[in-house]
């Protein structure tokens, strides 16, 4: 009897657990709503609202989540957050087993949505609060992406990007569930690539290393290609790619190219259905016009962005950037009243941001929080704004003019050096760094000359053969190495270089190696694609820094400058 009761209890328990799973039709329905939120949000909302009142508790939870997701996509973050918090309370108070996968999935997507609501509002402390609150109840790797984003936002780019890449590599790819379409799975991974690309753009702002912009554009292209291959809203996908590439161009200082890319993206009118996308286009174009000194156009797009911001309230950092552009544009127009007004707005917004974070963020392009603060304070504190602006403009203009002429003179000198090197290489493809003709007159005047003519000739011919064999490329090409090759000792060889060649062995080696590099970069275009480290190792140096130092000493130019000039003359 006891066994029967026990079996009955177990049966009821298992039935209860299995009841806490969606059936196949329900799963397909939720997948359909998820897709419709992109393709037809109003239809998705109606269907989500319907199942949010379903008798099946678990199915009802998913319906309520997608209702909240609808308002999130509409940028109504306040209402979306209210719905999500209420849903989490319902799930916690339900009979869904806390150890079950369905509980973890539900809680995971809800906490994830709360995270992004607060992240979009710039409330990073609140976003972290939700992650920390629920991380013990969910798998350890559930929030790798979110922690990565926070680390990037806080300036820890190395660890943040590493977390984002780990999430990209460890997420299940193309393991489609019931009702899940391949393209929706691809979109998941495309989003991850775009997030990594944006992180690299932020890393560039801090480091100024062009390689990070290359990495950003690589991930953007991968993401766009994945979606376009499956014809997933190709026009919108292309518009977003142009927008992201435009930001990279602006970060690199090429505002004309950036503006051209923004305009290409603007041609796809589908972006008008996405308010936050339009905002990013407007702010990016305002930034370009501002740097290109087209004040009226900068005003137009900046005002448009600020008006639109009142709808979404997304990214205080972007709003601060807009305020700063307005401040500088009004200053350029000598409108002290409005310049003061926007400078004051900038300071108030900075205080709001600093209240959330202990240190400043890097935001779009080169708008550093400290610089904006200083500029705003200068304008507010000014009693004689026109005089200060005039003096400032004249001072900056003086610096610019001086810098221009100094830069021009330096560039001209460098270019003349380059032309001289090329001319020398053209006149003699194999410039003899060491001549076999012995200057006997020079030898005779050396007070310490003890080398006889026969030994001098022997050393000269021996060195000539080593040069022809390019032995100097060997990392072991040192005085003792060469002396052994020539069957002499280091004392005689050193004396030969000092008294006959009038240079040290080190100088002789440097001349040979740099001449080799100069000639090979001219003759072999593929060699120009090598890294400086690879070129250094090619000619016997252990690291690129040594190559750069010796190259500059011998030519007065940097290797990168020489390579760039060669590319321009091809």
Description:
The structure is a single chain. Helix content is 75%, strand content 0%. The chain starts with a helix and ends with a helix. Helix 2 runs antiparallel to helix 3 and helix 14 runs parallel beside helix 16 (316-332). It has 570 residues and is mostly helical. The protein contains 27 helices and no strands. Residues 1-19, 358-368 and 433-447 have low confidence and may be disordered.
Shape: elongated
Taking Cα atoms only, what radius of gyration do you get, to the nearest Å? 34 Å
Terminal CA distance: 95 Å
* Structure classification: mainly alpha
Q: Spell the H/E element sequence.
A: HHHHHHHHHHHHHHHHHHHHHHHHHHH
What is this structure, in a nutshell?
The chain is 75% helix and 0% strand.
How is this fold's topology laid out?
Elements: H1 2-19, H2 24-39, H3 41-51, H4 57-73, H5 77-92, H6 101-120, H7 124-134, H8 144-153, H9 157-170, H10 182-207, H11 210-229, H12 234-251, H13 255-266, H14 275-291, H15 295-312, H16 316-332, H17 336-356, H18 369-381, H19 385-427, H20 440-444, H21 453-468, H22 479-485, H23 490-500, H24 505-523, H25 532-538, H26 544-555, H27 559-569
Provide keyphrases for this structure.
single chain; mainly alpha; elongated; disordered N terminus
């Amino acid at each position: 009897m006891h066994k029967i009761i026990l079996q009955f209890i177990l049966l009821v328990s298992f039935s209860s657990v299995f009841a806490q799973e969606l059936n196949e039709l329900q799963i397909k329905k939720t997948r359909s709503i998820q897709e419709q939120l992109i393709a037809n949000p109003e239809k998705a909302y109606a269907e989500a609202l319907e199942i949010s009142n379903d008798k099946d508790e678990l199915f009802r939870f998913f319906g309520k989540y997608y209702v909240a997701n609808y308002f999130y996509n509409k940028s109504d973050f306040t209402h979306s957050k209210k719905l999500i918090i209420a849903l989490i309370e319902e799930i916690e108070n339900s009979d869904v087993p806390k150890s079950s996968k369905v509980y973890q999935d539900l809680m995971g997507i809800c906490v994830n949505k709360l995270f992004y609501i607060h992240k979009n509002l710039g409330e990073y402390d609140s976003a972290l609060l939700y992650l920390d609150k629920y991380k013990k109840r969910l798998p350890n790797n559930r929030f790798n992406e979110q922690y990565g984003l926070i680390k990037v936002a806080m300036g820890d780019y190395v660890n943040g990007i590493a977390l984002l890449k780990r999430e990209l590599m460890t997420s299940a790819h193309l393991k489609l569930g019931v009702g899940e379409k391949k393209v929706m799975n691809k979109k998941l991974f495309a989003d991850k690539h775009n997030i990594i690309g944006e992180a690299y753009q932020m890393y560039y702002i801090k480091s100024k290393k062009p390689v990070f912009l290359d990495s950003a554009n690589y991930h953007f292209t991968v993401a766009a290609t994945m979606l376009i291959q499956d014809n997933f809203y190709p026009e919108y996908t292309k518009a977003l790619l142009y927008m992201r590439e435009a930001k990279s161009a602006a970060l690199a200082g090429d505002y004309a190219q950036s503006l051209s890319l923004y305009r290409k993206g603007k041609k796809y009118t589908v972006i008008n259905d996405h308010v936050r996308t339009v905002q990013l286009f407007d702010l990016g174009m305002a930034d370009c016009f501002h740097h290109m000194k087209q004040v009226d156009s900068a005003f137009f797009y900046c005002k448009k962005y600020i008006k639109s911001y009142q709808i979404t309230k997304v990214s205080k950092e972007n709003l601060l950037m807009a305020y700063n552009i307005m401040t500088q544009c009004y200053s350029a127009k000598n409108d002290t009243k409005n310049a003061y007004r926007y400078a004051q707005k900038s300071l108030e917004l900075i205080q709001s941001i600093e209240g959330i974070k202990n240190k400043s963020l890097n935001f779009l392009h080169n708008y550093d929080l400290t610089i904006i603060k200083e500029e705003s304070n200068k304008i507010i504190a000014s009693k004689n704004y026109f005089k200060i602006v005039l003096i400032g403009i004249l001072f900056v203009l003086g610096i610019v003019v001086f810098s221009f002429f100094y830069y021009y003179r330096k560039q001209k000198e460098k270019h003349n050096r380059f032309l001289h090197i090329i001319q020398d290489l053209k006149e003699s493809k194999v410039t003899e760094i060491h001549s076999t003709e012995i200057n006997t007159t020079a030898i005779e005047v050396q007070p310490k000359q003890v080398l006889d003519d026969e030994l001098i000739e022997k050393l000269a011919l021996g060195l000539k053969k080593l040069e022809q064999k390019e032995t100097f490329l060997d990392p072991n090409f040192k005085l003792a190495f060469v002396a052994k090759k020539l069957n002499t000792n280091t004392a005689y060889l050193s004396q030969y270089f000092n008294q006959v060649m009038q240079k040290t062995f080190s100088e002789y080696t440097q001349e040979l190696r740099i001449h080799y590099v100069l000639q090979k970069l001219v003759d072999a275009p593929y060699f120009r694609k090598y890294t400086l480290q690879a070129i250094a190792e090619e000619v016997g140096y252990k690291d690129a820094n040594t190559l750069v130092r010796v190259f500059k000493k011998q030519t007065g130019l940097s290797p990168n400058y020489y390579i760039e000039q060669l590319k321009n003359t091809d």
